[in-house]
Design brief:
The complex is a heterodimer of chains A (about 160) and B (about 110). Chain A is of the alpha+beta class and about 160 residues long. Chain A has one domain (about 1-155): Cytidine Deaminase, domain 2. Chain A contains three helices and ten strands; from the N terminus they run βαβββαβαβββββ. In chain A, the strands form two sheets. In chain A, strands 3-2-5-6-7-8 form a six-stranded mixed β-sheet. A three-stranded mixed β-sheet of chain A has the order 1-9-10. By secondary structure, chain B is α+β, with helices and mostly antiparallel strands. Chain B is about 30% helix and about 20% strand. Chain B contains three helices and six strands. Chain B has helices at about 30-40, 40-45, 95-110; strands spanning about 5, 20-25, 55-60, 65, 80-85, 90. In chain B, strands 2-1-5-3-4 form a five-stranded mixed β-sheet, with helices on one face. Chain B starts with a strand and ends with a helix. Classes of the chains: A alpha+beta (about 160), B alpha+beta (about 110). At the A-B interface, strand 4, helix 2, strand 5 and helix 3 of A face strand 3, strand 5, strand 6 and helix 3 of B. Strand 4 of chain A pairs antiparallel with strand 6 (about 90) of chain B.
Chain lengths: ~160, ~110
């Protein structure tokens, strides 16, 4: 399961909407071994395409080095599909080179509907996983914040396929 | 001649889990052959059957992408640092079209 903060999801969706109809892409880094995405790093889509994305190799080197220096790893690698469903294409599977990462896909085909799915892609095998979106609640905030009208957590179950 | 090589997670099964290994060679091609003698199978993950650098990886010498330094012919010196990263790419596109773009890019880089 991918557990991720609502504020990060909102920023990823906003990035995807902003770059629509081109595909958007990026990384969410987190402390090594924590499986917790904490630091959003939107990346340039060097392909600037509606159907393809590619990190700029020099930007990637900089970002990967920075993660290394901070003892972080790429917990989430995200990109958008702008006309099709949020499911890994054969191209996505061929390139997937981070076996420890959650591959998060956002579809922007519907302007008003948030379509987010997460996958593990290891040795060419795609496994969907549920996404738990955790509301950003400051643990030190006054307690009444905890009893709002909206639920603190949203769970997206895997789709059938 | 020692060259430090940083290995990405996905290839550490070839290096016994090591994140950094050392090797030697006058060119990137020589270095990969040297590494393969101790870490069998590593080279095949980086170099295609046709003898070109694989599309799915980025290789850097110090701060430069080797695609702009002559790829496997990139010259190496003692003390250089080589970094290997998985290329991050994909998208809704079909694979055949992506491969065509890869071919085009390789041709552009070779100019």
């Amino acid at each position: 399961m991918l557990s991720i903060d609502r504020s990060i999801i909102d920023a990823i969706v906003a990035h995807a909407r902003r770059d629509h109809p081109d595909e958007a892409c990026g990384v969410v880094a987190g402390p090594a071994g924590s499986d917790t995405p904490t630091r959003l790093i939107p990346m340039d889509n060097a392909a600037r395409s509606m159907t393809f994305y590619e990190f700029d190799s020099m930007e990637q080197l900089r970002v990967w080095r920075e993660m290394d220096d901070r003892d972080e790893e790429p917990v989430v690698i995200y990109h958008s599909h702008t006309a099709t469903e949020a499911y890994p294409s054969r191209t996505d599977v061929s390139f997937a080179g981070e076996p420890g990462a959650h591959y998060l896909l956002v579809s922007t085909r519907e302007p008003d509907t948030e379509e987010i799915r997460s996958f593990r892609i290891v040795d060419g095998v795609v496994t969907e996983e549920p996404v738990e979106i955790v509301a950003a609640v400051d643990p030190h905030a006054v307690q009444s914040y905890m009893f709002g009208q909206s639920p603190a957590t949203v769970d997206y179950e895997c789709s059938d396929r | 001649m020692a060259i430090e090589v940083r290995i990405p997670t996905i290839l550490r099964s070839y290096t016994g889990g090591a994140k950094v290994v050392e090797g030697s060679g006058d060119t990137l091609g020589d270095l990969l052959a040297d590494l393969d003698s101790r870490h069998g199978g590593l080279r095949a993950r980086l170099v295609t059957d046709a003898g070109a650098l694989h599309r799915f990886v980025n290789v850097y010498v110090n701060d430069e992408d080797v695609r702009f330094l002559g790829a496997l012919d990139a010259k190496l010196n003692d003390g250089d640092s080589v970094t290997i990263l998985p290329a991050v790419a994909g998208g809704a596109f079909g694979f055949a079209a992506a491969a065509a773009i890869a071919g085009h890019r390789a041709a552009v880089a070779a100019r």
